[in-house]
Amino acid sequence: MQTRTPAVELTGLTKRYGAVTAVDGLSLRIEPGEVVAFLGPNGAGKTTTVDMLLGLARPTAGTVRVFGQAPTDAVAYGRVAAVMQTGGLLKDMTVAETVQMTANFYPHSRPVAEVLDRAGITDIAGRRVGKCSGGQQQRLRFAMALLPDPDLMVLDEPTTGMDVEGRRDFWTAIRRDARDGRTVLFATHYLEEADAYADRIVLIRQGRIVADGTTAQVKNLASGRQVRATLPGADQVVLAGLPGVESVEVRGDTVLVQAGDSDVVARYLLTQTAARDLEITARNLEDAFLALTTDAGTAGADAGNTTGNHTTTGTGTTAGAVSDGLQGSLR
Amino acid sequence: MTTTAIDRRRPPLGGFSTANLIMEIRRVLRNRRTLVFTLIMPAVFFLLFGLPNKGQLLDNGAQVTAYIMISLAVYGAMVATTSGGGMVAVERAQGWSRQIRLTPLRPAAYVATKVLTAMALGLLAVLVEFVVGAASGVRMPAHVWLLAGLAAWLGSLVFAAFGLFVGYLAPAENVMQFLGPILAILAMFGGLFVPLEVLPHVMQEIARFTPVYGVGELARAPLTGDGVSAGAVLNLVLWTVAFGFGASRLFRRDTTRV
């Protein structure tokens, strides 16, 4: 593992526009084959980072390597391809013409018919791009990105502005494609997308990484899990002394334990006490997201590459993006 | 990681391909608006304003209709190449120039394709005007057809550069709507609609420094037998260099990573 060239290696990446720091000393390593979500509220620096990763923007400081190459070289050799948020299509061309023209830019590419099929747009191949819906245009961008058969696929907020059905269709196409070993990095402010499609979540806020780990780790980061059991006369002091326990609360015969490691608590309760009706609930990603991207919750520093950041601005945006993202499938 | 079936190389010629050049030309040709302004309108102008002069002769015995036909061929070619170069404005507005930066296509190959597409459309405009003229009774010696046609066509390169310059100046989808009137005024100063001699003296003096003057003079020289003036050649070369330089400066600004 260690000796392989990382798919993506960002070191101290910084981008300033005048007095505004969009990306602030961001370092990140992505191994080949990982499916990584770049999650953060609007204005967190996701798109700026993606632009630098693709060579569309020049870093103020720091370096970008894609499979050990400069981004522009990785693009020229077809190792990385991207699906951008908006624009980039000529309205007067048909879907098939757009893909064919792009295919002609490469010395070797996958067949046009194949990428149309994989993106699920064979049936609209003859349609003018200007007449395609947002979702169809996005699948067209995806088809174009498939042409070089890239080792790294970058998707920048690919489902922004799509309705629920469009989002589902798009991700279905992405998942159907999922070639073994293809590295995928997608930026999103939809929690459910990060939760559902990524192996690893990199949480970003104000140009910095606030949390980095598996979906489960990131969930744990915020406040772990809650263990609830019926246990008359529970010994609060013993429970609070268990490893990873953050708080213990007794309400009548019910005991509520907040813990980073719920397994230890559950094992103790079931083997050492008379506890029954045990229930473990995970905080959902929404909680983690809110906790980490707002002031209150940057306490958990034990998972991944957490770098606590305690600034409070931007909370409103965060909450807005979250409720945005949740209309759909989380509840 | 699985080995990829794809051969990873940079494309030759920076990604330029004749397949895409042909696609671009076909694309231009199905744009009704472009066809009306570059092919149909100059032909209609000839039928409306050229044909009534049938039978009249220039001082050297050449047909007045031939003079008008060549002038309008230059007009058609300049509108064609301007709109061809101006396509970059539309494509920048639609984000295509950013999109192709995610492919191996080099910006220079993109611009070369645009210039060649513009020149192909310019050639077509000259040919259509000449065919309409010939069908309406214009007769000239073979070498005059050839030289006037070549001068009108190759000289219109100045407007391919002009179109690119404006295209990189203003990323607007409706760039040709404000360029149309500008081209008409320039065409008038270039003596394409009426001979410069009928204009007031002051305007004639100004006209010598406008960008259509050179190509107009050069294209009509084989017919009038006036010979090629150094002023006309200088005019054409300087304007082409000026627009080309302006376009390349803006182009470089556009493609520099920020």
- Indicate the overall shape of chain B: elongated
* Strand content range of chain A: 25-35%
Largest interface: A-B, 42 and 33 residues
- Detail the poorly predicted runs of chain B: none
Structure write-up:
The complex is a heterodimer of chains A (331) and B (258). Chain A contains twelve helices and 13 strands. By secondary structure, chain A is an alpha/beta fold. Chain A has a six-stranded mixed β-sheet, with helices on both faces. Chain A is elongated and about 75 Å long. In chain A, β11 and β12 form a beta hairpin. Chain A is 34% helix and 26% strand. Chain B is mainly alpha-helical and 258 residues long. Helix content of chain B is 71%, strand content 0%. Chain B is built from eleven helices and no strands. In chain B, α2 packs parallel to α5, α3 runs parallel beside α7 and α3 packs antiparallel against α8. The longest helix of chain B is centred in the N-terminal third of the chain and has 30 residues. Chain B starts with 17 loop residues before the first helix and ends with a helix. The model of chain B has no long low-confidence stretch (mean pLDDT 89). Classes of the chains: A alpha/beta (331), B mainly alpha (258). At the A-B interface, α3 of A face α1 and α4 of B.
Give keywords.
heterodimer, A: 331 residues, four-stranded antiparallel β-sheet, 26% strand, disordered C terminus
Short description:
Chain A has about 325 residues and is α/β, with parallel strands linked by helices.
SSE diagram, text form:
The complex is a heterodimer of chains A (331) and B (258).
Chain A: E1 8-17, E2 20-30, E3 35-39, H1 46-53, E4 61-66, H2 71-76, E5 80-83, H3 95-103, H4 112-118, H5 134-146, E6 152-156, H6 164-177, E7 183-188, H7 191-197, E8 200-205, E9 208-214, H8 215-223, E10 225-230, H9 236-241, E11 245-251, E12 254-259, H10 262-272, E13 276-282, H11 285-293, H12 315-326
Parallel strand pairs in A: 3-7, 3-8, 5-6, 6-7
Antiparallel strand pairs in A: 1-2, 1-4, 8-9, 10-12, 10-13, 11-12
Helix pairs in contact in A: 3-5, 4-5, 5-6, 8-11, 11-12
Chain B: H1 18-29, H2 32-50, H3 64-93, H4 96-99, H5 107-135, H6 142-155, H7 157-169, H8 175-189, H9 201-207, H10 211-224, H11 230-255
Helix pairs in contact in B: 1-5, 2-3, 2-5, 3-5, 3-6, 3-7, 3-8, 3-10, 5-6, 5-7, 6-10, 7-11, 10-11
